[in-house]
Specification:
There is one protein chain. The longest helix is centred in the N-terminal third of the chain and has 23 residues. The model has no long low-confidence stretch (mean pLDDT 81). The chain has a domain of 69 residues. A hairpin with a 5-residue loop joins strand 1 and strand 2. The chain has four helices and two strands, in the order ααββαα. Strands 1-2 form a two-stranded antiparallel ribbon. It is mainly alpha-helical and 126 residues long.
Length: 126
C-alpha cells in the first residue's frame, strides 16, 4: 500500500469523530449538578423528587390532556393528596423563578420545551 500511514490515520480520525457523541455523553453534565435550588416554601412537590426529575414532562402532558381534553382539573397522587391541574397556579406557585429553576436545567440538558408557546414565562422573584 502506497499511503498506508495516511489511510490508518484517516480511519482513526473517522472512528474518533463517529464515536465522539458517545464520549461526550459519558462525560457530560448531570442534571443533578446544575446548581438548581429547589423552592423552600413547600415541603412536598406533586410527586417525589426522583419522579419529577425524570417524568415531569410526561406528567405535564398528561395534565394538559386531562384538563383541556377531558375537563378534569384534579390530580390525585398515590398517597391520596389532591392537586389542581394547572401549570400557572400549581407548579409556578413554587417554581416561580424561570431563570434560576426551569431554564438552568433545560439548558444543561439541551432541551427546549414548548410550554412557553402558550404559558407566560414567570418573572424573577422580587
Amino acid at each position: 500500500m502506497y499511503n498506508a500511514k495516511a489511510v490508518v490515520a484517516g480511519i482513526i480520525i473517522f472512528v474518533v469523530l463517529c464515536t465522539s457523541p458517545f464520549w461526550a455523553a459519558m462525560t457530560g453534565q448531570d442534571y443533578k449538578k446544575t446548581g438548581i435550588v429547589p423552592p423552600g416554601d413547600e415541603k412536598n412537590c406533586v410527586e417525589n423528587v426522583t419522579f419529577m426529575r425524570a417524568q415531569h414532562m410526561r406528567l405535564l402532558n398528561e395534565w394538559r390532556d386531562e384538563a383541556l381534553r377531558r375537563e378534569n382539573r384534579t390530580y390525585i397522587t398515590a398517597d391520596g393528596k389532591k392537586w389542581t391541574i394547572s401549570l400557572q397556579n400549581t407548579c409556578l406557585k413554587c417554581h416561580s423563578n424561570y431563570k434560576d429553576f426551569c431554564q438552568k436545567c433545560h439548558v444543561a440538558n439541551s432541551v427546549d420545551p414548548y410550554c412557553w408557546t402558550c404559558h407566560i414565562i414567570p418573572g424573577e422573584n422580587k
